[in-house]
Amino acid sequence: MHYEVDTNFLIEQFRELVAVPSPVGYYVKANPLLERCAAKFGCAVTYDNKSTAYITLEGEDNSKTVLLGAHMDTIGMVVRRIDENGMIRVRQIGGMNFCSAEGCSVTVHTRDGREYTGLLACQSHSTHVFEDARTLPRDENTMIVLLDEPVKKREDVRALGIRHGDVISVEPNCQVTPNGYLKSRFIDDKGAVACVFTALKYLTEQGLKPKYRTIFAFPYYEEISHGGAYVPPEVSEYVAVDIGLIGPDLDGSERAVSICAKDNSTPYDYELTNRLIAKAEKAGLDYAVDTFFRYGTDANVAWKAGNNLKAAAFGMAVYCSHGMERTHIDGLAATTNLILAYLLDL
Fold it and tell me: DSSP characters for 117-180?
């Protein structure tokens, strides 16, 4: 069965989610947003001690509990040090691709809630000034944040309340083309979160319950590989809704949903993965089954942490992961359809 999901809502939900900064571990602004999104459909949000947000739906059969996880954290940076001249050095959190991020606008979030914008640049920032401007590696040792403030020395920066460890978020630069291409940072994984809320909208408007008791989980530590380490003990299946990849060894495309058979360390549960493939076929979805090398999900982490459950993963495929990513509304809609096919188990 193919589900006619609201793709306009899906895109607008993505825009709302991606506009709110949530680098690894920074849930201050994002969890209130999740509460507002859930309230649209009469749902409450609960939290564990890691600030993972949960939405729980009662099922037609509550003897079994399944979980769909879509992580809210994104890659980002923290303040590493403040140079004498007021330039900020950074540490990445979650696999930042500095070659892609060079020239982006960023925001420094202080511990007391102040925010300052800046520019992420290479220390050899101009071809007119530096001989190695084109050749210097872009990494933690060469990238700087230039604050959009009249700072000239370290003391000026400290006077703004900026300290070591302050979170730095990157401007997503979201764009949607008239023919359905979505270009933005952090489609990984706010595209998947938008799919989850679009599925929730469909269930609510159609008056449907999932077959089994269902928990939607939104962790904040996936990008550093421990978002799914804690799982509520009643959960018997953990399905990570996360990006698929596009490349020479892969069949996935932007207009399809990718089902991950194996990631960098483990094959996913054989029976559950087969079930997802069968549901994709029954729903007539454009889908691919792929294995991903430099890749992992919270479902993988849930297994490694010793949780007694089945694990699987699927999601929309993107170009340029951990950079300025691109996918298509067709891939997001196919992902939403597979979420619904899994939950309703028809």
Answer: EEEEEESS--TTT-TTTTTS--STTTEEEEESS---SHHHHHHTT--TT-EEEE----EE-TTS
Which domains are present in the chain? 7-74+186-344 (3.40.630.10), 76-170 (2.40.30.40)
DSSP state of 320: S
pLDDT, tens digit, 9 for 90 and up, residues 143-197: 999 999 999 999 999 999 999 999 999 999 999 999 999 999 999 999 999 999 9
SS3 98: helix
Output the pTM of the full model.
Answer: 0.98
Task: Note the Cα 62 to chain centre separation in Å.
Answer: 29
Backbone angles phi, psi at 284, to 5 degrees: 70, 30
**Rounded distance, CA 175 to CA 179, Å?**
12
- Nearest alpha-carbon partner for 110 in 36, 15, 21, 189: 21
Q: What pLDDT, on a 0 to 100 scale, did the predictor assign at position 1?
A: 76
Burial class (CB in 10 A: 0-12, 13-18, 19+), 179: exposed
Q: Which residues are catalytic?
A: 222
- Asked if 186 and 18 count as a contact pair (C-beta separation under 8 A), the reply is yes
| pLDDT tens-digit readout, 75-129 | 999 999 999 999 999 999 999 999 999 999 999 999 999 999 999 999 999 999 9
Please give the Cα distance from 108 to 233 (Å, whole number): 37
Q: What are phi and psi of 198, to 5 degrees?
A: -70, -40
Cβ pair 334, 285 in contact under 8 A: yes
